[in-house]
Amino acid sequence: MLFQVGGQGVRPTFFEMAAAQQLPASLRAALTYSIGVLALRRPILHKVLDYDDEFFALLMLVLETHSLRTTEASFSESLYGLRRKAVNIKLSKENPRTESGHSGLKKHQKALSVAFMVVLPYFKSKLHSIYNREREATLQASLWGPSDVRIDDSDYFDSGASHVPAGSLSTNASLWARVRKRIEAFIGDFYPWIHAGNEGLTFAYQLLYLLDATGFYSPGLHVLGIHVCRATGQELMDTSSRISKIRSRERERLRGPPWLKALQRVLLSCMYTTLDYAQTGLIAAVFFFKMMEWWYQSAEERMSAPTVYPPPPPPPPPKVAEEGIPLPPDRTICPLCSQKRVNPSVVAVSGFVFCYPCVFRYVSQYKRCPVTLMPTTVDQIRRLFHDM
């Protein structure tokens, strides 16, 4: 569903917006996986995984700030050729209805966009982790009792030491620890409602966006007064010239002796090159992560799947001994009594079938198979039930 927004660009489809919103999560998963693989050989990288929220927030802060500054779009939106434009509500004197137009983003809108895309998700992840800890603590308390009244192993075995009463733990705790515990308990109680309200409001906006009832894909864009539109060809052509002007002004602002200016130019060039190729490199990292995820998932499925082998061929039939009882042409006839078999039973060592009374008497007397003369006992006679 496409429609013109204010005459300045076409509104992107719902699926384009959803893909742009999902890209940061895929990027984070790719970076976490890559760092985890590298940490197998470099244990020092485990410290990065301990602060993965801060590391990813800092990375996205740099990328989003640079992208909004140069292209007036977020990092993921610029990949799909989208641009953010401020909504200007005007009241025409001739027409009492409101008319909407678009203009470039202002500085405060760019700053608030970064806050909505980086800062708020960071705090949301922290609140989610605190809620998970509180939920686990509540579950453990329901199973084992509160942690402050549990008997420690060292207290149990150390009978000669003086034990501190459980009530004195909270008395000796610092004020900050008590405040922090109350804040975490408050978050554990109210975070589900906040999370449900946010998810419900976001879903409502996405549903209205899908039905062409609103031009805002999320409540954050509505609060900021920003529409996301597909960039025109002229805007895409002007992006490179805008970046060149920004970088030229930054080079002109360099101050200091010649050697310091040269060093600053080298550092700026390195930073520009890194930012220019960061988009391509990160997308390649996401693609590589997805490929490796598919590879390892298919390998695990192959390893966990039961191996199906073809059925083994039947063993060759045992040879009839020269002095043994010959087999009748009709396979339903007992070789011993030459009558129709009753209570068919097989001799395990040879596989031939006889009447149970006949073969039982013969094996009890001769201790061998009647046909092959192979040694056997009555314990190796098996009853067959295929004819029942």
TrEMBL record:
<comment type="similarity">
    <text>Belongs to the pex2/pex10/pex12 family.</text>
</comment>
<keyword id="KW-0479">Metal-binding</keyword>
<dbReference type="InterPro" id="IPR013083">
    <property type="entry name" value="Znf_RING/FYVE/PHD"/>
</dbReference>
<dbReference type="GO" id="GO:0004842">
    <property type="term" value="F:ubiquitin-protein transferase activity"/>
</dbReference>
<keyword id="KW-0833">Ubl conjugation pathway</keyword>
<keyword id="KW-0813">Transport</keyword>
<keyword id="KW-0812">Transmembrane</keyword>
<dbReference type="GO" id="GO:0005778">
    <property type="term" value="C:peroxisomal membrane"/>
</dbReference>
<comment type="function">
    <text>Component of a retrotranslocation channel required for peroxisome organization by mediating export of the PEX5 receptor from peroxisomes to the cytosol, thereby promoting PEX5 recycling. The retrotranslocation channel is composed of PEX2, PEX10 and PEX12; each subunit contributing transmembrane segments that coassemble into an open channel that specifically allows the passage of PEX5 through the peroxisomal membrane. PEX12 also regulates PEX5 recycling by activating the E3 ubiquitin-protein ligase activity of PEX10.</text>
</comment>
<dbReference type="InterPro" id="IPR006845">
    <property type="entry name" value="Pex_N"/>
</dbReference>
<protein>
    <recommendedName>
        <fullName>Peroxisome biogenesis protein 12</fullName>
    </recommendedName>
</protein>
<keyword id="KW-0862">Zinc</keyword>
<dbReference type="InterPro" id="IPR017375">
    <property type="entry name" value="PEX12"/>
</dbReference>
<dbReference type="GO" id="GO:0006513">
    <property type="term" value="P:protein monoubiquitination"/>
</dbReference>
<dbReference type="GO" id="GO:0016558">
    <property type="term" value="P:protein import into peroxisome matrix"/>
</dbReference>
<comment type="pathway">
    <text>Protein modification; protein ubiquitination.</text>
</comment>
<dbReference type="GO" id="GO:1990429">
    <property type="term" value="C:peroxisomal importomer complex"/>
</dbReference>
<keyword id="KW-0576">Peroxisome</keyword>
<feature type="domain" description="Pex N-terminal">
    <location>
        <begin position="21"/>
        <end position="298"/>
    </location>
</feature>
<keyword id="KW-1133">Transmembrane helix</keyword>
<dbReference type="Pfam" id="PF04757">
    <property type="entry name" value="Pex2_Pex12"/>
</dbReference>
<dbReference type="GO" id="GO:0008270">
    <property type="term" value="F:zinc ion binding"/>
</dbReference>
<keyword id="KW-0653">Protein transport</keyword>
<keyword id="KW-0472">Membrane</keyword>
<keyword id="KW-0863">Zinc-finger</keyword>
